[in-house]
Design goal:
Layout: H1 4-19, E1 29-34, E2 37-41, E3 55-59, H2 74-83, E4 88-92, H3 95-101, E5 106-107, H4 112-117, E6 121-124, H5 133-142, E7 148-151, E8 155-160, H6 163-186
Parallel strand pairs: 6-7
Antiparallel strand pairs: 1-2, 1-4, 2-3, 4-8, 5-6, 7-8
Helix pairs in contact: 1-6, 2-5, 3-6
Length: 203
């Protein structure tokens, strides 16, 4: 059975992801690393209605009985834990960020907060998504250098030392994306107010 305090964190973050529109009712997944184990949301569980039985404990390394019920993207979470120092991973489907990912190779903030927190969010492409080895390798490699990345047309993967930290980066990404979209809709030229803004593309 999942630890009560950890479950409460999962439940709170899951509800926040849903009510802030960062994924659909059953979309996305999240996990934490505890030693050589991963605790991950089971496939098909509703983010806004999470119960202790909606979580699976499985090995960080090999096959075990937990695999059958775990999220289909367990392979991606495992790769991220193997290749980064993350202790928490969240995958969600933020709408505006997904829309931007369809025509960009990177999302570069134009607002102060986004520029300070994330600088740049790379967009990666994979032919075979939803739990493929290709997806696991591509996403985990990108997260060696960034807190959060976008998979083109699919969604984001965010890392942190806690679920709250990983959620913070997703919330920030979608705010960045909304601001970019709304400025685009205004059709007005950007008045550059940041020093060395050109360096953000090289970050």
């Amino acid at each position: 059975m999942i630890d009560e305090r950890l479950f409460e964190e999962f439940r709170t973050i899951g509800r926040d992801i849903l009510v802030t529109g960062l994924t659909s009712s059953h979309g996305g997944n999240m996990s934490v690393r505890v030693g050589d184990k991963i605790i991950i949301k089971r496939r098909g569980a509703q983010l806004g209605q999470l119960k202790p039985t909606d979580f699976v404990e499985t090995s960080l390394y090999g096959r075990d009985s937990g695999i059958a019920r775990a999220s289909t993207e367990l392979i991606v979470h495992r790769a991220i834990y193997h290749n980064t120092s993350a202790l928490a991973v969240i995958h969600s489907h933020p709408r505006t960020a997904i829309a931007l990912s369809l025509s960009r190779d990177e999302i570069i903030p134009i607002d102060v907060e986004g520029s300070y927190l994330l600088r740049k969010i790379p967009v990666v492409s994979v032919e075979f998504a939803s739990g493929s080895t290709q997806m696991a390798d591509t996403v985990s490699a990108a997260l060696k250098q960034y807190k959060i990345i976008m998979q083109r047309g699919h969604g984001c993967f965010s890392t942190g030392q806690t679920l709250e930290e990983a959620y913070h980066w997703i919330s920030t990404l979608e705010e960045i994306s909304d601001i970019i979209l709304e400025h685009k809709l205004l059709g007005e030229p950007l008045i550059e107010y940041r020093k060395h803004s050109e360096s953000y593309k090289k970050w």
